[in-house]
Amino acid sequence: MKTTATLFTAIGLALIAPALYAQTPDTEVQPLLDKVAAAYRNINALSLTMETTQTGSTSKTKIVLKKPNKLTATIERGQVVSHVVSDGTSLYSDSSRDKTTYIKQPFTKFEDMVNTVAMNGGGGVGLLPILLTSPSAEKQIIPGKPASLKKLADANVGSDACEVVEAVIPRGQQSSRFVFSFGKQDHLLRKLSFGGATDEKPAVVETFSDINLKPSETDDVFKYTPAPGAKAMDPPKEPAMFDPRLKVGAAPLTITGKDLDGKAVSLDQYKGKVLLIDFWATWCGPCVAELPNVIAAYEKYHSKGFEILGVSLDQANAKDKLVSFTKEKKMTWRQVYDGKYWEAENAVAFGVQSIPFTLLIGKDGKIAAVGARGEALAPAIEAALKK
Fold first, then answer.
1. What is the per-residue pLDDT for 129?
2. What is the rounded CA–CA span in Å between residue 164 and residue 50?
3. Between 126 and 193, whose confidence is greater?
4. Cα four-point dihedral sign 372, 375, 377, 383
């Protein structure tokens, strides 16, 4: 069963996982973050709608939960609809990509239940699962070590008055900007935007509406009904995020297709170079977050024999947007794009189930590193250039 649990794992929690306290938190901000974390810890029941926009792609997640063990979520991403349901005994998940099967597993704990929603595409930037499950959420709301952290002027999100916090996070030679809007009365998250510090528009925007701490739904809503004829499957023990043949020292698989100029692409064109194959998309929040690091690596090592080949998983009719995006970000390397989204020919051939995903190819044409990104990218490139 090919579920969105594997397709969207990286989109959910990747940005928030390394979150740390700011070294010098604003004296107004930290008390507010403490109130926010306390508000979520005190929640016993909750219903809401979360809408996420990522560079033109929109998803909507409707959630109803009752602690300690019941939840239902419907996640809509384009034409794909997924469900996550916990009846208190078992946890179910499915995807419209495959109506013949669904996953059933024993309910274990509240954290796993909520994170399953994020991993099925309902996580967005990934702050909501942290707020609902982490015992130290007040230390994890702000990702990384901010260069600046401050309260902005209060603003309304819909009809709700909100306190607004801005955090600017250094990422290589560029910075990312997070803006959080918390309800003034209940301290619950109403909006979160993320993007480059100098971008006119954020790359990711999440809005939270229809928030209700006393949902009226009966327990019938937590009963799972599979599609007619669908069979229950055990969850994969170790979800494969890429083809297992992609190992250090092995030959990479074949890249096919054309770049944005209509020219055929082949790995043979990069013989003798160190090449980073970067599977990404403009709609992918973690991909956009990683871009400053990738761009910095290109600027530093390109003159020494380093190249990048992007493989875009953008959707159909997105070529103009992709061209504009790469031009704006000064991503001068080639991009392979066929408009097939998760069914992009190279993504399918390489078994890619989560992005961003990278392969670093050495001068000898063999794989030098798998999944190198963040702080691991530059050392991997330097090591490959020395060989």
1. 85
2. 18
3. 193
4. negative
Residue 136 has, within 13 A of its CA and on its CB side, a CA count of 7
Q: Where are the domains of the chain?
A: 4-223, 267-386
Do residues 356 and 290 touch, judged by C-beta distance below 8 A?
A: yes
Question: Cβ atoms within 10 A of the Cβ of 283, count?
Answer: 27
Angle, helices 377-386 vs 285-301, to 10°: value is 40
CATH 3.40.30.10 fits 267-386, yes or no: yes
Domain 4-223 has CATH 3.40.50.10420: no
φ, ψ at 276 (rounded to 5°): -100, 115
The three-state secondary structure class of 260 is: coil
Strands 204-212 and 231-233: unpaired
pTM passes above 0.70: no
The closest of 185, 177, 227 to 201, measured between CA atoms, is: 177
Judged against a pLDDT cut of 50, whether residue 153 lies above it is answered with: yes
Q: Which residues pair with 264 in a beta bridge?
A: 258
Cβ(235)–Cβ(103) below 8 Å: yes
